[in-house]
Amino acid sequence: MLASTLNKRIYIEKEVTTTNAVGTPVETYSYLKETWASMRLLIGNTQFSQDGELPFSSTEFIVRYDDRIDYKCRIKYDGQYYRINHIHEQGRKDFYRILALVWEEN
Questions:
Q1: What phi and psi, each to the nearest 5 degrees, are found at residue 74?
Q2: How does pLDDT run across 4-36, given as a tens digit for each residue?
Q3: What CATH number should be reported for the domain holding residue 63?
Q4: 37: exposed, middle or buried (C-beta count within 10 Å: 0-12, 13-18, 19+)?
Q5: Which 3-state string (H, E, C) describes the chain?
Q6: For residue 47, what are the domain limits?
Q7: What is the pTM of this model?
Q8: Closest residue by Cα to residue 96 from 82, 86, 83, 81
Q9: Percent of the chain with pLDDT over 90
Q10: How high is the pLDDT of residue 54?
């Protein structure tokens, strides 16, 4: 992997549990890191359901290895959030190949 192919700036956020004013646990995301990555759209399509049309995009990100990145993280790129589906370690802890889907907030 050539470092020059890491030409997209992405943000990685990690899920944390906080409590609200009445003490109820709330899942939120906090900033973990900003890093360079390569990005490739694997498949994009529209699925039809009872709720209407749902866009579907599967994307591959390649980032430098960081053991803080796990399945409780999400990626933000160009104003869009991506949910991590799979993390594959490349080489001897050199890079991560991350497969992600577009994150749709409910």
A1: -135, 160
A2: 889 999 999 999 998 888 889 998 999 999 999
A3: 2.40.10.270
A4: buried
A5: CCHHHCCEEEEEEEEEEEECCCCCEEEEEEEEEEEEEEEEEEEEEEEEECCEEEEEEEEEEEEECCCCCCCCEEEEECCEEEEEEEEEEECCCCEEEEEEEECCCC
A6: 3-102
A7: 0.81
A8: 86
A9: 58
A10: 65
Task: Give the C-alpha separation, 1 to 29, whole Å.
Answer: 30
Summarize pLDDT for 45-58 with one digit per residue, the tens: 776 667 666 667 88
- Count up the domains in the chain and report the number: 1
The residue written with tokens 């409590």 in the block is 19
Cβ contact 96:66 at 8 Å: yes
Q: Which amino acid is it at 84? A: I
CA distance 57 to 25: 31
Sign, CA torsion 36/104/73/41: negative
